[in-house]
Amino acid sequence: MRFSDPAVAAVHADYERRRTEEMARQAAMGGAMLARRDEFLLPVGPEVGAFLHSLILARRPARILELGTSYGYSTLFLADAARQVGGILITMDLADYKQAEARTQIERAGLGGVVDFRLGDAVALIDADPGPFDFVLLDIWKDLYVLCLEAFHPKLSDEAIVAADNMIEPDIARPDARAYRAAVRALSDMQSALLPIGSGIELSVKWRAASSKL
Ligand SMILES: C[S@@+](CC[C@H](N)C(=O)[O-])C[C@H]1O[C@@H](n2cnc3c(N)ncnc32)[C@H](O)[C@@H]1O
Predict the structure, then answer these.
(1) Atom 17 of ligand 1, nearest CA residue
(2) DSSP string of the chain?
(3) Domain range holding 147?
(4) How many domains does the chain have?
(5) Which atom of ligand 1 is nearest to the CA of 141?
(6) CATH number for the domain including 111?
């Protein structure tokens, strides 16, 4: 997608250059990559980024929550959309050096005014926030997805959207991805579907009368 703001577009182009270079490096590393995963963006990718951006423009959420800032790739999409609809983005990560770099890039893009960077364990940080959350991107380590869902679900507004990444890649059958899909689909007020875009998004909507499941 093309960002209309030149400052945002310039930062996005830098992220895309880094993403392309990292993809080649990761392919060369093979299995050794996992031990060094914190060096990499581990981004949602351009397709999911554009999809989330569009969803925010359509849904116009006031408070957006991002779980997994990393180096700020997805943060850029969410923050640009948040600014366009007059919302704010709260983004959480455990790694100070990653979030510091994300902050530098977001400020360079001129989006610092709409992003609230929070450093620490996501579950504790969610517990400390009164909510509500109108839109959530869930993209931290996958064994934390169910714990995060349990923490933010009571704070979701009606018709809130939750997008959970990596539901198909790297492995649709991995136990933590399956456990998340089962947990979100078991909630009586959530409608959910698995979308084959990027690494696979489980897209869930809080729906007061979600008695008829998809
Ligand atoms: C897949 S990356 C996020 C990628 C980012 N959303 C993007 O598209 O560029 C996952 C991130 O989750 C963070 N993380 C892992 N455990 C965490 C925790 N307990 N609390 C907060 N963040 C955590 C990692 O530091 C890492 O940066």
Answers:
(1) 94
(2) ---SSHHHHHHHHHHHHHHHHHHHHHHHHGGGGGGGGGGS-----HHHHHHHHHHHHHH--SEEEEE--TTSHHHHHHHHHHHHHT-EEEEEES-HHHHHHHHHHHHHTT-GGGEEEEES-HHHHHHH----EEEEEE-S-GGGHHHHHHHHGGGEEEEEEEEE--SSTTTTT-HHHHHHHHHHHH-TTEEEEEE-STT-EEEEEE-TTTTS--
(3) 6-206
(4) 1
(5) 15
(6) 3.40.50.150
